[in-house]
């Protein structure tokens, strides 16, 4: 007697209360069930133990759960039971077999005592029944079906003759080598003959490759494949076969991906790896279905467990993308906690990364894009001119950036290649840079947490290329000198030149715009350069300084259309683009207008000072002159405050920030961003942006400037009227005061009405100016920019204007 049989007998002695007539039958039946070859529902012992624990927890059998755990621990430590999983399966299947219907049988069919509350499981009640119907079924069908509804009573009858069947049945069983399969769904046990199992295996050989046969019909629904057979299989066998056919469905799905048309190096590498996986799958099937070696459904299930998981992992990547998008998809599937999933996807990701790695190396070393299928995340438009090389010719396709690359890394790769082409095409520099000694291996692209080889390669190429580009821009093209020249002339930083230029051009610029000519202004500007400190500038800078007359419209003066210009070409045109030039012109026009207001208010004040003594002999204009002085001081104060805000709080602060950023800038892109950011900040703080509040403030400021020009016109008119009065009085004195009546009529009918008109106009202008300034201050207080809000305090530091 083997160890297993002895253990089973000892177990049955605990339940049969020393009744010999039941012990023998029970031992034979249980031994047969323990050693029988059938597909087990639970392939994992831990999963089965979990089911058992949940069963105890469901029915509140805590004490039995503890004792079962102790018994299982001792059994695991002794290792005397080889078929431990099958034994646990058997005991677990007996959990619901106790039925009260057998407890009322007579003494001939005495039951095993059900007082098993001291054990972990309820033992079923057995009874001896007739075997006639079973034998008839076996003779008719060749396959013995043993029904069991709520107990295993009929299993005893299967081994009623001391565990043996009739001689005819014995020989038949030996001939067919039948296998007992358990159907977990309907509670019935089926004896499957060996030749029937062989037929199923032959059909499965085709089904595992997605091939339909006479008995296997592929149904491409949501549930995968289903089987249709001429002879009905029991549910457990059918479930097992359908599980095998899932491999065939996955195989067919992968094969469709392989056969789909692909374009692109990454896609071709992906398809090649899928083909390699299917070849390995074919090799496995060849080994499994080797005619020289026996195979069963149970063994087949064990052998196909891991290949099925690999097929599932591969088939889950059903979306055939291109380039970086496919790498992102593979990387997402590779970031999985299952080691099998990682090992399956790793070779796919590795081989698909090789083409992108080669494109990156070629781009950052030579600035060449070898991408015939548009898979690289840097694209080139060969139709774009070289002047727009940096802005439009090379673009970054974010959809093709692999997810294992950060945006910063992709941008550095993009900038490195553009810098090489910028040096070669626009700077005419053919210096060969040794940026990469050894290309990074493909796996370092998607394993950057464990290796910095790829990141170091990118940083090395980026630093070397951008350093050389910055050196060329500074030493060969004198980039910083041009920035400073623009600040001195277009942003009115060269004060002596601007003041002298306005003095020279005043007469010309006071003319209507259609009477102002370029050559006249050009000659005046050349004179200003020769006289002021601008003459000490580099010859290259002086040559680039120019004038531009903008479009002329009606009622405009030369002041409104004259603009300084600074011409740039070559690589510098990339930094100072046409768009930036237009923005510089807008800023210059605004500054030029403010300078004109300052120039005008200073001229009015000088005229008032000069004429105040000349007009002291006319007492009628003393009060009016006092009023004019007050308005002039008020306007001068306003213009000087605005000019101080522009020149120091806007331009100087922005220039200081720009210098700091240009000093820290490593690549051309950072230089461009610093320049654009500085220009944008200046435009916003000068009220030149598209914001609605800024536009309202700009309109109000232009209204104030127009009032200053009107005041200049009124003072000129006042001075002319008073000069005429002085000439008339001088003429009257020379005539020795003759015709006094005519003189009185002239005074009362000519001078006094003219003076009264001018006085009323000045009073109106005074009130209008204050109202305009008050409105301007109110609008400043609600502007989102803090610098402009601070301007309102500067303009009204003594609260002269009562702002609500």
Automatic annotation (TrEMBL):
It comes from the Eukaryota. It is found in: Cytoplasm, Cytoskeleton. InterPro entries: GCP (IPR007259), GCP_C (IPR040457), GCP_C_sf (IPR042241), GCP_N (IPR041470). One of its GO terms (biological process) is meiotic cell cycle. Residues 480-801 form the Gamma tubulin complex component C-terminal domain. Keywords: Cytoplasm, Cytoskeleton, Microtubule. GO terms for molecular function: gamma-tubulin binding; microtubule minus-end binding. Residues 201-476 form the Gamma tubulin complex component protein N-terminal domain. One of its GO terms (cellular component) is gamma-tubulin complex. Pfam families: GCP_C_terminal, GCP_N_terminal. PANTHER family: GAMMA TUBULIN COMPLEX PROTEIN, GAMMA-TUBULIN COMPLEX COMPONENT 3. Belongs to the TUBGCP family. This is Gamma-tubulin complex component. It comes from Didymodactylos carnosus.
């Amino acid at each position: 007697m083997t160890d297993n049989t002895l253990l089973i007998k000892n177990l049955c002695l605990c339940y049969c209360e020393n009744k010999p007539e039941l012990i023998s039958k029970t031992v034979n039946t249980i031994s047969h069930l323990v050693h029988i070859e059938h597909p087990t529902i639970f392939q994992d012992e831990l999963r089965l133990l979990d089911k058992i624990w949940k069963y105890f927890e469901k029915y509140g059998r805590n004490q039995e759960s503890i004792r079962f755990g102790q018994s299982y621990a001792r059994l695991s430590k002794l290792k005397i039971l080889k078929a431990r999983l099958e034994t646990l399966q058997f005991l677990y299947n007996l959990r619901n077999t106790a039925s009260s219907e057998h407890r009322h049988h007579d003494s001939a069919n005495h039951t095993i005592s059900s007082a098993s509350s001291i054990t972990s499981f309820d033992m079923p009640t057995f009874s001896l029944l007739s075997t006639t119907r079973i034998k008839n079924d076996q003779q008719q069908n060749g396959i013995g079906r043993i029904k069991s509804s709520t107990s295993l009573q009929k299993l005893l009858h299967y081994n009623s003759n001391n565990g043996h069947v009739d001689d005819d049945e014995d020989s038949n069983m030996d001939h067919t080598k039948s296998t007992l399969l358990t159907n977990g769904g309907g509670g019935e046990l089926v004896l499957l003959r060996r030749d029937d199992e062989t037929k199923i295996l032959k059909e499965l050989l085709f089904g595992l490759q997605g091939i339909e046969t006479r008995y296997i019909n592929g149904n491409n629904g949501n549930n995968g494949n289903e089987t249709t057979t001429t002879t009905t299989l029991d549910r457990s066998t059918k479930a097992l076969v359908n599980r095998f056919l899932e491999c065939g469905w996955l195989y067919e799905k992968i094969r469709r991906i392989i056969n789909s048309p692909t374009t692109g190096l990454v896609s071709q590498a992906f398809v090649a790896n899928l083909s390699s996986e299917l070849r390995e799958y074919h090799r496995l099937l060849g080994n499994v279905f080797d005619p020289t070696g026996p195979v069963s459904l149970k063994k087949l299930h064990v052998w196909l467990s891991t290949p099925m998981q690999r097929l599932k992992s591969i088939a889950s990547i059903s979306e055939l993308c291109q380039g970086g998008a496919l790498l992102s998809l593979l990387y997402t599937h590779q970031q999985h906690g299952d080691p099998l999933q990682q090992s399956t996807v790793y070779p796919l990701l590795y081989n698909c990364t090789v083409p992108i790695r080669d494109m990156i190396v070629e781009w950052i070393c030579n600035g060449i894009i070898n991408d015939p299928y548009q898979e690289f995340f840097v694209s080139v438009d060969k139709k774009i001119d070289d002047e727009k090389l940096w802005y439009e010719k090379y673009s970054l396709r974010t959809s093709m950036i692999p997810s294992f690359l950060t945006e910063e890394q992709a941008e550095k790769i993009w900038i490195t290649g553009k810098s090489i082409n910028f040096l070669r095409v626009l700077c005419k520099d053919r210096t060969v840079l040794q940026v990469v000694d050894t290309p990074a291996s493909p796996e370092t692209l998607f394993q950057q947490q464990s290796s910095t080889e790829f990141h170091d390669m990118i940083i090395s190429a980026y630093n070397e290329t951008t350093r050389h580009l910055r050196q060329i821009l500074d030493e060969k093209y004198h980039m910083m000198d041009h920035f400073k020249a623009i600040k001195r002339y277009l942003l009115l930083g060269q004060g002596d030149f601007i003041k002298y230029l306005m003095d020279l051009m005043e007469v010309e610029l006071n003319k209507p715009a259609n009477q102002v000519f370029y050559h006249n202004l050009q000659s005046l500007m050349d004179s200003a350069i020769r006289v002021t400190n601008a003459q000490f500038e580099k010859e290259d800078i002086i040559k680039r300084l120019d004038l531009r007359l903008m479009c002329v419209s009606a009622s405009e003066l030369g002041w409104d259309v004259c603009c300084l210009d600074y011409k740039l070409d070559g690589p510098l045109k990339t930094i100072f683009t046409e768009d930036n030039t237009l923005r510089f012109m807008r800023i210059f026009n605004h500054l030029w207008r403010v300078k004109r207001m300052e120039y005008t208010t200073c001229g009015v004040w000088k005229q008032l000072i000069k004429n105040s003594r000349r007009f002291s002999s006319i007492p009628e204009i003393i009060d009016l002159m006092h009023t004019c002085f007050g308005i002039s001081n008020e306007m001068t104060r306003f213009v000087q405050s605005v000019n101080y805000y522009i020149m120091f709080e806007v331009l100087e602060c922005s220039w200081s920030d720009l210098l700091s950023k240009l000093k820290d800038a490593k690549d051309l892109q950072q230089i461009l961003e610093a320049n654009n950011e500085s220009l944008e900040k200046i435009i916003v703080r000068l009220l030149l942006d598209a914001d609605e509040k800024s536009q309202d403030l700009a309109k109000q400021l232009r209204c104030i400037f127009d009032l200053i020009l009107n005041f200049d016109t009124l003072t000129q008119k006042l001075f002319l009227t008073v000069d005429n009065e002085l000439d008339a009085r001088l003429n009257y004195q020379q005539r020795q005061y003759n015709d006094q009546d005519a003189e009185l009529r002239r005074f009362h009918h000519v001078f006094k009405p003219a003076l009264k008109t001018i006085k009323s106009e000045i009073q109106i202008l005074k009130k209008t100016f204050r109202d305009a300034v008050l409105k301007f201050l109110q609008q400043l207080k609600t502007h989102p920019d803090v610098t402009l809000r601070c301007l309102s305090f500067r303009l009204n530091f003594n609260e002269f204007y009562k702002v609500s």
